[in-house]
């Protein structure tokens, strides 16, 4: 099996500054998603179902929460069989600096590639939401005789400037790589679309090591795959595109892939789950998303002190949630949240252990964990007032930070 010849790196050390304050105490891949998951669970689940059993998670920024999650939820492989999901912190293995770019993160761990004796190296990002069968991509890489294979997807020309854009010939070979171009090159068959890199790569291991050593020797390199390494390889190596969404045998072909790098993108990706037919189906039984789950009782509703019944409309509730006479609409509530009498929660995302007091009104909010909102408080209804206390995004999403104490 080709998976047995493959070493997998997951890049999970990013600061995630655009997700602040959700990343004030945790790295971007360990931010909660969908009421019970962490963002990195989607990439790890893809590895699990794709048969990848040698996985190294490169961590750096505020990694304790992520390390704990990997220990509690992903200690599922047997090291005695050569299987593992192992966090690898930045250790200054080569030089006196932390990871300085995606390529440098792998370069500083070349010894792990050498020790693995792997024929192929897969490099993934730990901060995207999607399902994908990596085995299909590995087989495509081998069948094409490629030195490098880049996973790609079609995006609109307007969106393409935010990505690395690849230009291919009729055989899917990449003939140019444009990193976040002002004027992206469109697909020949559709001038309104471009082919964007998803930041997922398969390398022949020997070539990868050679390319990273070469990149390290270039003084003005930013040591980034998209900016530096891949454009050079496209010129003199066989680099092919693998178009996302083709692996229909095992994964629902929804072609859903989201970079949740901003608060607004993160909020929308969560709320997408509430659609009557969600673009990402969490209920696909042959590809379940794995995570660590606290031991919590089932969610329940009870009548509040005023006699008002708890009401839940088009929402997702994790274990341990109690609705005590509150009203929940189009929202996602994580484990241990408590909604008190006459409270109204609309189009909001609540993290673990949030207590919403009597008569509170929340709208278009993200409330981080361990927050107690006092009775009659209103958030999301007066953005001018909210900006004096909280971060408010361009699209009007209010973010209440972890452990916030109301005066």
From TrEMBL:
Listed pathway(s): Glycan biosynthesis; glycogen biosynthesis
Keyword Electron transport (UniProt): no
Entry's EC annotation: 2.7.7.27
Pfam families membership: Hexapep_GlmU (PF24894), NTP_transferase (PF00483)
PROSITE patterns linked to this entry: ADP_GLC_PYROPHOSPH_1 (PS00808), ADP_GLC_PYROPHOSPH_2 (PS00809), ADP_GLC_PYROPHOSPH_3 (PS00810)
Record has Transcription as a keyword: no
Site residues, Could play a key role in the communication between the regulatory and the substrate sites: 60, 98
GO molecular function, one term: ATP binding
Highest taxon in the source lineage: Bacteria
Record domain Nucleotidyl transferase: where: 9-273
Residue ranges occupied by any Glucose-1-phosphate adenylyltransferase/Bifunctional protein GlmU-like C-terminal hexapeptide domain in the UniProt entry: 297-400
NCBIfam families: glgC, PRK00725.1, PRK00844.1
Family note: Belongs to the bacterial/plant glucose-1-phosphate adenylyltransferase family.
Assembly and interaction partners: Homotetramer.
Name of this protein: Glucose-1-phosphate adenylyltransferase
């Amino acid at each position: 099996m080709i998976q047995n010849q493959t070493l997998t790196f997951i890049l999970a050390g990013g600061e995630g500054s655009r997700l602040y304050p959700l990343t004030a105490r945790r790295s971007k891949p360990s931010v909660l998603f969908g009421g019970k998951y962490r963002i990195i669970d989607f990439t790890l689940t893809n590895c699990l179902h794709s048969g990848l059993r040698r996985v190294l998670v490169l961590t750096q920024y505020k990694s304790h929460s992520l390390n704990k999650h990997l220990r509690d939820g992903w200690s599922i492989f047997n090291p005695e069989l050569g299987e593992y999901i192992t966090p690898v912190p930045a250790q200054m293995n080569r030089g006196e600096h932390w990871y300085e770019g995606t390529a440098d993160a792998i370069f500083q761990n070349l010894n792990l590639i050498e020790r693995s004796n792997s024929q192929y190296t897969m490099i993934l990002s730990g901060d995207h939401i999607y399902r994908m069968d990596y085995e299909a991509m590995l087989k495509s890489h081998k069948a094409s005789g490629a030195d490098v294979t880049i996973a790609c997807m079609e995006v609109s020309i307007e969106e393409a400037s935010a990505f690395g854009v690849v230009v291919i010939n009729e055989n899917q070979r990449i003939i140019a790589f444009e990193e976040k171009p002002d004027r992206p090159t469109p697909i020949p068959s559709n001038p309104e679309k471009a082919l964007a890199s998803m930041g997922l790569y398969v390398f022949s291991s020997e070539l990868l090591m050679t390319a990273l050593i070469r990149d390290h020797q270039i003084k003005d390199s930013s040591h980034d795959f998209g900016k530096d390494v891949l454009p050079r390889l496209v010129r003199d190596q066989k680099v092919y595109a693998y178009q996302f969404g083709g692996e229909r045998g095992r994964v629902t072909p929804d072609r859903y892939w989201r970079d949740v790098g901003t608060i607004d993108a993160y909020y929308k990706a969560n709320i997408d789950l509430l659609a009557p037919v969600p673009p990402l189906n969490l209920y696909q039984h042959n590809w379940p998303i794995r995570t660590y789950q606290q031991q919590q009782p089932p969610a329940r509703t009870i009548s509040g002190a005023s006699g008002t019944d708890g009401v839940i409309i088009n929402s997702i509730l994790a274990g341990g949630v109690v609705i005590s006479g509150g009203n929940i609409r189009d929202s996602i509530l994580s484990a241990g949240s408590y909604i008190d009498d006459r409270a109204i929660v609309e189009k909001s995302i609540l993290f673990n252990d949030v207590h919403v007091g009597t008569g509170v009104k929340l709208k278009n909010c993200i409330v981080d964990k361990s927050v107690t909102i006092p009775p009659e408080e209103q958030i999301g209804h007066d953005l001018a007032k909210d900006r004096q206390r909280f971060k408010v995004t361009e699209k009007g999403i209010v973010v209440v930070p972890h452990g916030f104490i109301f005066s």
